[in-house]
Amino acid sequence: MSFIEVVGAKIDTRHYINGERVASEQTFTNTSPIDGTFLGEIARGDAAEVNAAVAAAKAAFPAWAKLGPKGRGVLLHKLADLVEANIETLAQLETMDNGSLLRSHRRGVMPRVAMNIRFFADYAMNDLHHPEFETRGHTNVVSWDPSGVCAIITPWNAPLMLATWRIGPALASGDTVVLKPAEWTPLSASFFADLTKQAGIPDGVFNVVQGYGREAGAALVSHPDIARIAFTGSVPTAKTIARAAAENLTPISFELGGKSPLVIFEDSDLELAAELAVEQYDNAGQVCLSGTRILVHESIVEAFSAKFAERAAKIVQGDPRDEATQIGPQIHQVHFDRVKGFVDRAKEEGANIIIGGEPNTELGGLYFKPTLVLEPTAGSEIVTKEIFGPVLNLQTFKTEAEAVQMANDTEYGLAAVVVTGNRERAERVTADLVAGTIWVNCFFVRDLRAPFGGSKKSGIGREGGVWSFDFYADVKNTVFSPNGWKE
Question: For a disulfide at 159, which of 122, 185, 216, 294, Cβ 3.0-4.6 Å?
Answer without folding.
Answer: 185
